[in-house]
Amino acid sequence: MNAFSNTAAVAPAFPAASDERLLIPPAVEPRKTGTRRLALGRTIPFGALIGPALLLVIWSIGSIAGLIDPRTLPAPWSVVGTAIDLIAEEKLQHHLTTSAWRAAQGLVFGVLIGTILALISGLSRLGEAIIDGPVQIKRAIPTLALIPLLMLWFGIGEGMKVTAIALAVLIPIYIQTHSSLRSIDSRYVELAQTLRMGYGEFIREVILPGALPGFFLGLRFAVTYAWLSLVVVEQVNATSGIGYMIDLARNYGQTDIIIVGLVVYALLGLASDGIVRFFQERSLSWRRTLAD
After folding, report:
1. How many CB atoms lie within 10 A of CB 115?
2. Which of 291, 288, 286, 284 is nearest to 39 (CA)?
3. Do residues 72 and 255 make contact, with C-beta atoms less than 8 angstroms apart?
4. Whole-angstrom distance between the N-terminal and C-terminal Cα of the chain?
5. Is 59 exposed, middle or buried (0-12, 13-18, 19+ CB in 10 A)?
6. How far apart are CA 182 and CA 124, in angstroms?
7. Is 221 in contact with 111 (CB distance < 8 Å)?
8. What is the pLDDT along the chain (292 residues), one digit of tens a residue?
9. Distance (Å) of CA 90 to CA 96, 106, 112, 238
10. Are residues 179 and 135 in contact, defined by beta-carbon separation less than 8 angstroms?
């Protein structure tokens, strides 16, 4: 037996060409496990109404079962009847129009001033040194505590009420917008310099889109603060408005009218927040978030 024969005898046998598939390791199939999705899942239709509906059901059951004293909290159908009477007498429409106009004026002035201050402070070290301190001081002082001083400065008319609402509104607008401006990634600044953008183009194309998420978040808080401030200022020498209606009902022990006023405030707050969220989704449609 020659050397070639000995080598062939000890050499491992390789598969034929027709069996080359045996050399390829089989693909490892992932095990199907019951892992939970990391996303939030599908949107629940009318999900925002579930919580209020449950409260209404509990309120109704408590009233029917006699667990709730009607002098403390009237039944839902009694409140609805009172609201219908107020609408028929056109009292509710009158108070609602007055309140909405006051809140709108304060909201517009507060948003405008807060945005301007945030832009000056967020885009300039000098502006921040001048503006940020006083705004933070106002942030630490409740608007309610300023009402006596505002009454001395502006009297007890509409100017004081609108000013109080505007002061409450500008704080969340300033804080959130300023934070968004300072949180813009510095790499965008470097990219803008590389592309040789002018300052105006840089503000328009980089700064403002980057600050929009914070601005809309601040606007949602601002709308809520506007209604909260309105409740307070309308109880100071007012002759109309939802807050005046509630305060007058308190003097006469009309709990049902107080509940109607609170429900109106709640509906106004939810409606205005929904409007802000609508424009937020349209303006920030380019973002992909966990909620999408």
Report:
1. 19
2. 291
3. yes
4. 77
5. middle
6. 10
7. no
8. 444 444 444 444 444 444 544 445 555 555 554 445 556 667 777 667 788 889 889 988 988 888 888 888 888 898 999 999 999 988 899 999 999 999 999 999 999 999 999 999 988 889 889 999 999 998 888 888 888 898 889 888 888 899 999 999 999 999 999 888 888 777 777 777 777 777 777 777 777 777 888 899 999 999 999 998 888 888 877 788 898 899 888 888 889 999 999 999 888 888 888 898 888 888 776 666 545 4
9. 10, 25, 33, 18
10. no
pTM to 2 decimal places:
0.73
Q: Which residue has the tokens 């029917």?
A: 64
Other C-beta atoms closer than 10 Å to the C-beta of 160 total 21
Q: Are 289 and 213 a contacting pair, CB within 8 Å?
A: no
The torsion defined by the Cα of 113, 211, 278 and 242, in degrees rounded to 10, comes to: -30
CB atoms within 10 A of CB 262: 14
Distance between CA atoms of 276 and 61, rounded to whole angstroms? 34
H helices of the chain, in order, are 3-10, 50-64, 76-88, 91-123, 125-140, 143-154, 158-182, 186-194, 199-202, 208-233, 242-251, 255-283
- Count of CA atoms in the C-beta half-sphere (13 A) of 106: 32
d(CA 154, CA 134): 20
Report residue 221 as tokens: 């808080």
- Alpha-carbon distance 242 to 196, whole Å? 55
